[in-house]
Specification:
about 15% strand, about 375 residues, Rossmann fold, transferase, about 40% helix, Glyco_trans_4-like_N, Glycosyltransferase family 4 protein, six-stranded parallel beta sheet, alpha/beta, 2 domains, 12 strands, Glyco_trans_1
């Protein structure tokens, strides 16, 4: 393992999305990416304060009053698109308290690393002047687009893919591309297998029902691993197939999920929306498992030129099954090459120095700009 890169020790505030804890088993790729970010920054020696929901890891530096509320349902959970009554107001209240503290003590942090989907951190960035980087993990959200117009001069945007950057740029939000990364130690090389796997959030836009159709065409059993994010969709489109060549094993901690993915023959990726990045692509490839995917959104650039991958037209299940069949036929020895190329593109360990340098550079550039403004 590469030794942690040493650089100046920064005081970093990381703001997470609010809905799910930043803890295992990760609710989705966004939560996994933020967890890895905080872990990497702390490993590099930075002092990191995480604003995230109750139940998250890394909250040792976070005052209780600045911890975001957990989603608590009194009735059945319907989908990831819904919130319990009053929840959004509770989140806004915590973020308002955070902004108030930053305004009262703008020297508390050297830089803010923002991953929140709430507009308040972006819109208020000019009021405290602390250098802030906001990562755009999703297609454009109207509230965030409006907030970007109010962002302070020490604020910059990052996007997880060129595709996503282009979507935001079309609405006036300029962003630099910084793709997602994967911890290679958490996703070790796998032994491979004979059957396909699908993993991720079980929601309509991820399309696991199409993976079921493709596996049936392959004549092979399919494992689905992931949290049910839309109960109605699961009951309607997934549950009737469970036990009939399909098994659903729910959300798994990363170590178990990585062994499962690494022990599979091919990963099926079936986005039905303009996927910003698709972290499952990188995770599967780093274990050496080939990937067959619909060519949609940022997936095309993520997989561009990588061995052990096949892209097919969106929603074309026949083509997906044919691509998976090709990948299942490649020699096991090819898995090493798949991992090596994936490490070059996605390894968090290899790119840790870049992350340190980016945050340090943004903090120092903003500081110099602020000093110049005061001098004038």
């Amino acid at each position: 393992m590469i030794a942690p890169h040493r650089t100046e020790r920064l005081r970093i505030l990381v703001i997470a999305p609010s809905r799910h804890p930043i803890a295992e088993p990760h609710a989705g790729g966004l939560e996994a990416a933020v967890w890895d970010r905080v872990h990497a920054l702390r490993t590099a020696g930075h002092r990191v304060t995480l604003v995230a929901s109750h139940g998250s890891d890394f909250l040792d530096e976070t005052p209780v009053e600045l911890r975001l509320p957990s989603v608590a349902w009194t009735g059945p959970v319907t989908s990831d698109e819904a919130y319990p009554p009053g929840y959004v107001d509770e989140v806004a209240a915590v973020l308002a308290r955070l902004v108030d503290r930053l305004e009262r003590d703008p020297r508390a942090f050297d830089v803010i690393d923002n991953h929140s989907l709430h507009p308040l951190p972006v819109a208020s960035s000019g009021s405290h002047g602390i250098p802030m980087l906001t990562t755009l993990h999703t297609p454009p959200l109207p509230e965030l687009v409006d907030a970007a117009a109010q962002a302070g001069p020490a604020h910059a945007f990052l996007a997880v893919s060129s595709h996503t950057a282009g979507e935001w740029r079309a609405l006036g939000v300029d962003a630099t591309v910084q793709s997602n990364v994967v911890d290679p130690d958490a996703w070790p090389f796998g032994r491979g297998g004979a059957d396909p796997i699908w993993f991720g959030r079980i929601v309509p836009e991820k399309g696991p029902h199409l993976a079921i159709e493709a596996a049936r065409l392959l004549g092979r059993p399919l494992t689905l691993a992931g949290r049910v994010g839309d109960v109605d969709y699961f009951e309607r489109s997934i549950a009737p197939h469970v036990g009939h060549g399909v098994r659903h094993i729910g959300a798994l901690r990363r170590s178990r999920l990585a062994r499962l993915v690494g022990g599979s023959g091919v990963a099926l990726v079936t986005p039905r929306w303009e996927e910003p990045f698709g972290l499952v692509l990188a995770e599967a490839l780093i274990t050496g498992t080939p990937v067959a995917s619909f060519a949609r959104g940022g997936v095309v650039e993520v997989l561009d030129g990588l061995p052990g991958t096949r892209l097919v037209p969106p929603d074309d299940v026949d083509a997906l099954a044919a691509a998976a069949q090709e990948l299942l036929a490649i020699p096991r020895s090819e898995r090493r090459r798949i991992r090596e190329h994936a490490l070059e593109r996605f390894s968090a360990t290899a790119r840790r120095a870049d992350l340190d340098a980016m945050l340090s550079r943004h903090a120092s550039l903003a500081a110099r700009s602020d000093a110049a403004a005061v001098a004038s």
